Amino acid sequence: MNLLLVILITATSVILGTGLCFFLIYKAREVDSTIWMLEHVICPVMRIIVLLIVVSQIYPAIDENSTSLDFWRILGQQGQFSDIVNILFLAGLALSFIPLLNHPVFALPVQSILTIALVFHWQYLGTIPSLVLFPSSATILMIVVYMAMAYFVTREASIPLSRWLDRRLVVSGSIRLVSDALYMTLQIPVMLIYCSFLKSQLA
């Protein structure tokens, strides 16, 4: 796994995806257009696509002989791409009704872990009969501790960064853009922790 390439693709996809969502919503508000569809359907689907791109870069950590292309090849089989998009969309909707987990800093890692678990299941179902997808207690503890740290980092960093961005771009309300970018980026260690748990089953 080329770490530099992973960082480059991840950063580009996160910036473009979150930036496009912010731009569309900002323009919709300018013309007094309805933004319900953007905020509740179009942008969540766009975030799922960005999430899949980020996960595809991290997924090869499970197997050093695989690449991100293998991730997309698995999703390309038997309509599994549309299945996983629908599953993640419904998962995001369900998480929005659960206290604590409805916060993006917790919801996104849950969705990313779900993505990795599904793809891992589809890839190794026929070769490893006794797959364990639910993380161990130690893995859960590490994930929870990290998510709590990510929450405080995002809370402290998003406001000053958004104020700086507002001044630079002469806009207002960029805190959603900054927060989304931070949420998406800070969940990467959570994915690596879960991938390490799954990798132990391939040894």
Can you walk through the features of this model?
By secondary structure, this protein is mainly alpha-helical. The protein has one domain (3-196). Helices cover 75% and strands 0% of the residues. The chain contains 8 helices and no strands. α1 (3-30) packs antiparallel against α7 (175-186), α4 packs antiparallel against α5 (104-124) and α6 (137-169) runs antiparallel to α7 (175-186). The mean pLDDT is 86.
Based on helices, strands and strand pairing, what is the structural class? mainly alpha
List the uncertain runs. none
First-last Cα distance: 18 Å
Order of helices and strands: HHHHHHHH
User: How many domains is the backbone divided into?
Assistant: 1
Mean pLDDT: 86
Percent helix among the residues? over 70%
Q: Could you tell me the radius of gyration in angstroms?
A: 18 Å
Judging from the principal axes of the Cα atoms, what is the shape? Answer: globular
User: How many beta-strand runs?
Assistant: 0
Percentage of residues in DSSP E strands? under 5%
Structure annotation, total helices: 8
**Sheet with the most strands?**
none
Provide the descriptors you would attach to this structure in a database record.
203 residues; 75% helix
Write the layout of secondary structure elements.
Blueprint: H1 3-30, H2 36-58, H3 68-75, H4 80-95, H5 104-124, H6 137-169, H7 175-186, H8 188-199
